[in-house]
Amino acid sequence: MTEDLRKKSIEAMKNSYSPYSKRQVGAAIRLSNGKVYSGCNIENSSFGATVCAERVAVWKAVSENGGDIQIVEVVVATEASPPWSPCGLCRQVINEFVAKNCEVYSINPNGDVRTFTHHGLLPNGFDRSALIP
Ligand code: THU
Questions:
Q1: CA angle 75, 23, 32 (to 5 degrees)
Q2: Closest listed residue to residue 95, CA positions, set 116, 50, 126, 67
Q3: Cβ-proximal residues to 13 (8 Å cutoff; 6+ apart), any chain
Q4: What tens-digit pLDDT sequence spans the chain (133 residues)?
Q5: Residue 91 belongs to what domain range?
Q6: pTM over 0.85
Q7: Is the distance from the beta carbon of residue 21 to the nearest atom of ligand 1 less than 6 Å?
Q8: Which residue in 5, 32, 24 sits closest to 97, CA to CA?
């Protein structure tokens, strides 16, 4: 895990808007072009409109770079122990833009780290190759 992503994911947690679950989540991603984006979870009184930290980070990256991006590293930070891995929806959204050997780290501020690969978290995922030959 790179130090800048670790720090940015923990910083992003602090902006979490989570009055309902009271769980702050931060995420940071690095693209193959070197750019880094972060996000936090943003809840909504209409619960289904809540969005996770990881997806906010991905959407920020796409909105600033277009869709031709490759995510090479993801760090997700929560206070939880063990730290949370990305939810299924976020795995799918990451899958759309993921690089071949993307690493995913789940961390908490106490220093616990769980290390995954994206493809370990979402084996045989559905992707654009099914729709665009
Ligand atoms: N959450 C994330 O931000 N990322 C995940 O991968 C798991 C869940 C958020 C959504 C909601 O605001 C809170 O954590 C509890 O589910």
A1: 15
A2: 126
A3: 24, 25, 26, 40, 53, 77, 78, 79
A4: 999 999 999 999 999 999 999 999 999 999 999 999 999 999 999 999 999 999 999 999 999 999 999 999 999 999 999 999 999 999 999 999 999 999 999 999 999 999 999 999 999 999 999 999 8
A5: 3-130
A6: yes
A7: yes
A8: 32
Distance, CA 53 to ligand 1 centroid (Å)? 7
Whether 73 is a known active-site residue: answer no
User: What is the spatial distance between Cα 48 and Cα 69, in angstroms, rounded to a whole number?
Assistant: 28
Q: Is the distance from the beta carbon of residue 102 to the nearest atom of ligand 1 less than 6 Å? A: no
Could you give the number of structural domains in the chain? 1
Mutate which of 17, 23, 24, 60 for ligand 1? The one with the most ligand atoms within 8 Å of its CB, which is 23
Task: Supply the CATH number for residue 33's domain.
Answer: 3.40.140.10
